[in-house]
Fold this protein.
Amino acid sequence: MSLLLSGRDWSLYGVRGAIVAVNSLSLLVIAAVMNLADFGHFVFLWVIAVTLGAVGSLGGQLYIMRETSALQSDPARGVSAVEAIQIVFLWPAAMLGLIAISTILAGPLFLPFVGYEAPRPTEVFLVVAVGLTLNLIGHAATPLRIDDRLTVSMLVRDGGPQLILLTAALLATLLARPHPVVIFGFFLVLSLFVLALLAMTSIKRAFSRRQLLRVSGSARALGLRSFWGTSVLGNLNAQVDILLGGLFLSNADLGAYQILKRLANLASLPQIVANWTVLVGVGRACASSDVMMVQRLCRRAATLTLLPGITLASVLLLSLPAFLWFFEIENEQGIWLVFSVILAGSVVNIICGANFTVAAQCRLEHIALRARLIGVMFAAAMILIHGAALSAINLAVAAFIALSIPNLLLWLYLRRKLSIDTSLICLLRSERHMS
């Protein structure tokens, strides 16, 4: 298999590059209109909203994607219209509404003991509403993905929220009110408009071209709880350093750390493109019990990540001084160490390949859940042990642990139990030998 990328591969990287540019631009704009302390507070609220979106999703996005992909090969799979409404909106809205009410009622009694002020009801409902909206945007990409519209679905799921957030920040700045609550309010209004537009155009077209809902059979949600746990823990794996670090670091330090983390995480771009490219194919192959096809798709994913991953990680390291200058972060040895540790976690993610995609599509989400739980526990322990003495480098090590341990454990499991190698190592072996 050639390591050179095809024209379609480059188009996916072009789209992903545009998404990264928008994401980075939104970060730049918001950081520019706020001081570092306010930006740290904004980041903390945004991470809470993203986490609530994962909690409220109940794992529905991953579950519906797997079942709808399998429906293309097996009419007995998929979800019905009633199940879709429940999973996409009713259950998430009920859960997040309960979380909002509980926070408003119980927050003033418990939050002061862990160093937080009692939250304002308006802020609580806005953050929860943003979480629910993020979940809806993620679901909106599923029909487009099944319809093989990879670039559009990628733009909707990964670029949509940040582009809307950027627009909301610009509107808030024009009104001279770049406050998190104002930005979140604009975000909600703009998101509802975008979702309505998608429903009337691209999503409607996808439903006319593909069978996206099961038309018969009893309702069931096999594995939904495992998908929920995997989704929540996946988010915690990515954000545990911010969520717990916010208890001990100042807003300014947390803001600077988040900038470094966002930059280092750009190295994972090739893996995201690869996962997006092979996901539906892996789902269909698993539904047909075609292990050889799953392995071929893993090789395909590895091909998409190898050279771009090496190049991007190198560019990020070389360009770090320029980013530090732009964000007015002191260029010192400790900063380079923090950045390098976080970057190493992204490299491990690339090396292990499409392991979580294979697990999710091949009904092994419970194994992915256990792997992520171990990673979160070790990372959380690392942060809480240091407590008030916590530093940015401790957070970086925790982020590395949260990302690398689950990846390595799941890669080993797939290799030993299913004889599927998702890592870059599979490129060293010929397809004839692996089959």
Notes: The longest helix spans residues 291-326. The chain has a mean pLDDT of 81. Residues 225-435 form one domain.
